[in-house]
Amino acid sequence: MNNLELQKRANDVRKGIITAVHSAKAGHPGGSLSSADVFTYLYFEEMNVDPKEPEKEDRDRFVLSKGHNAPGLYSVLANRGFFPVEDLTTLRKLGSYLQGHPCIHIPGVDMSSGSLGQGISAAVGMALGAKMNEKDFRVYTLLGDGEIEEGQVWEAAMFAGFRKLDNLCVIVDNNGLQIDGPIDQVCSPYPIDKKFEAFNFHVINVEAHDFDALRAAFREARETKGMPTCIVMHSLKGKGVSFMENSVDWHGKAPNDEEYAVAMADLDKIEKELEKAGEA
Fold first, then answer.
1. Residue 230: strand pairing partners
2. What is the pLDDT of residues 163-180, one digit of tens each?
3. pLDDT number for residue 92
4. Do the Cβ atoms of 92 and 26 come closer than 8 Å?
5. Smallest Cα–Cα separation from 270: which of 4, 39, 88, 17?
6. Phi and psi dihedrals of 209, rounded to 5?
7. Is the per-residue pLDDT at 277 higher than 80?
8. Structural domains in the chain?
9. In sequence order, what DSSP letters do the residues of 92-129 get, joined into one string?
10. I need a surface site. Which of 50, 54, 65, 90 has the fewest CB within 10 A?
11. Residue 280 reports pLDDT greater than 90
């Protein structure tokens, strides 16, 4: 899939995020939007997954450690064909299978998550299990930069580095904001790259919204042997929606009807620009 196609897919994922959160009248749009490009690259390009066989044994695994970004994960799963896109409007509603945080009963979800810091531990366990059983699938996990203030993250990182789990790829969405404000004012985790290096990780810093950069980073991660990889992706919280970009206010609230209309108009504009680029 070329970059333009990936950009179009990512824009569809962002539309799904906004639609789901608006319909639920609750949720976390900011981080879901900043992660939309990496979600898209993982599920449409990088990972060995099949919507027709969501539990096939040799599939790559993904754990959303920052589980509150469920709208982003659900949107990419729906757009990839794991379940109907129309079901995104049932997010968080009574009787819906699309709960506020990922649950393992959802097609395509490999691990229930939501308690910050715990997802990476599950991913490390999956990677270790693959090594012990001589399986060659890879394990990916996405963490928030605020989430890595949790101590359990570093226990898992220490274990992964010591065990040389080169089938593990940890991704940190470094958008600089968490629920209480800028991360460097709440409880700074910087320098993120040096910390992971200290735990025997190969570290790659990358621009989160550049598909060439993401492609190169994930290729480098696959080629790295003898140690796990951490990709620190520098992103823009709320990416794609004008009034949500780089705003901590949109960490965990839903747009009202008027804001929803503006957000979708922003994404429609991006879609038209991408269509023009395709015709050029």
1. 170, 203
2. 999 999 999 999 999 999
3. 97
4. yes
5. 4
6. -110, 20
7. yes
8. 3-279 (3.40.50.970)
9. T-TT-S--SS--TTSTT--S---STTSHHHHHHHHHHH
10. 50
11. no
- What tokens appear for 10 in the block? 């990512």
The beta strand positions in 17-112, using DSSP E, are 61-64
User: How close are the terminal C-alpha atoms of the chain, in Å?
Assistant: 18
List CB contacts of 18: < 8 A, sequence separation 6 or more. 29, 241, 255, 260, 263, 264, 267
The token duo for 85 is 């896109």
pLDDT digits (tens, 9 = 90+) for 199-251: 999 999 999 999 999 999 999 999 999 999 999 999 999 999 999 999 999 99
Copy the structure tokens of residue 211.
């598909």
* Count of residues in the chain: 280
Q: How far apart are alpha carbons 74 and 269 in whole angstroms?
A: 23
Q: Which residues pair with 35 in a beta bridge?
A: none
Cβ-proximal residues to 15 (8 Å cutoff; 6+ apart), any chain = 75, 264, 267
Q: Whose CA is closest to 161, among 245, 96, 224, 242?
A: 224
Reduce the DSSP state of residue 205 to 3 states and report it: strand
Task: Residue 226: count other Cβ atoms within 10 Å of its Cβ.
Answer: 9
